[in-house]
Design a protein that fits this description.
This protein has about 260 residues and is α/β, with parallel strands linked by helices. About 40% of the residues lie in helices and about 15% in strands. It has a single domain, classed as 3-Layer(aba) Sandwich (Rossmann fold), CATH 3.40.50.720. Keywords: Oxidoreductase.
């Protein structure tokens, strides 16, 4: 029996490089998975691949009505939600703050911050009805410092950390844990493919050699950390962050 047998897990950004891995990971552990993504066709294809314990819903995380519909569809098919993985997020090409258009700021904060907040608000009543649950937000190592030319993204992910801690205080007595996952540089299309035409992919300029684990992360390593945070093994953890970055935030390691 899997760790999430009988539970319903909603993953946002579920058809992307990381989200798809999360969906597969929870499904392998016995969960009913709700594949929430703007690209409904890709979501439906993934749900058909997984079978009866999978449901695809169209979800723009910045749209309150989409959230209401997604939660209602999830409950109608599988019952109250057990886990929300607020995975949907957007990055942007390197841009100095003084050169960033207002529209760029609005888009990045709308998806990464407002989308996460709306998700917490939408799933909390369902989790109460089910006797509790777990909300996992996704931050970034950029949310533990400043990174030149990525101001909107840095600010948004710092805000996600604050939302996580606040929600943990507000929902804890309802049996809902709220935790945050902080990935480092992971080999997903967000890292391996250019963010814009004429801009090198992050993987082309990132050098992991100085760090304790001198490589990029594998997406499945992030999914395994996520499964732990959402599982009963982490029942005494809330309002906290699990950093999975190969030692990136520690700084350069001593040579062997």
């Amino acid at each position: 029996m899997g760790r999430f047998e009988g539970q319903t897990v909603l993953v946002t950004g579920a058809t992307g490089g990381m989200g798809r891995r999360h969906v597969h990971a929870f499904h392998r552990e016995g969960a009913a998975v709700v594949i929430a993504a703007r690209d409904q066709a890709a979501g439906v294809a993934l749900a058909e691949q997984l079978g009866e314990r999978a449901l695809a819903v169209r979800l723009d995380v910045t749209d309150e009505q989409h959230w209401s519909a997604a939660v209602a569809a999830s409950e109608q098919r599988f019952g109250p939600l057990s886990v929300l993985v607020a995975n949907a997020g957007v990055q942007h090409p390197p841009t100095l703050l003084e050169d960033a258009d207002r529209s760029l700021w609005d888009t990045v904060t709308a998806v990464n911050v407002t989308g996460t907040a709306l998700g917490i608000r939408a799933v909390a009543p369902s989790m109460r009805r089910g006797g509790g649950g777990v909300i996992v937000t996704v931050a970034s190592t950029m949310a533990h410092g400043g990174t030149a030319a990525f101001g909107p993204y840095v600010a948004a992910k710092w805000a996600v950390r604050g939302l996580t801690r606040t929600a943990a205080l507000e929902l804890g007595r309802d049996g809902v844990r709220v935790v945050s996952l902080t990935p480092g540089v992971v080999a997903t299309p967000l890292i391996t493919e250019p963010l814009a035409e004429g801009v090198p992919a992050i993987a082309e300029v990132f050098d992991p050699e100085p760090f304790a684990v001198p490589r990029m992360g594998d997406p499945d390593e992030i999914s395994r950390a996520l499964l732990f945070l959402a599982s009963p093994d982490a029942a005494f953890i809330t309002g906290s962050e699990l950093v999975v970055d190969g030692g990136l935030l520690l700084g350069p390691a001593l040579p062997a």
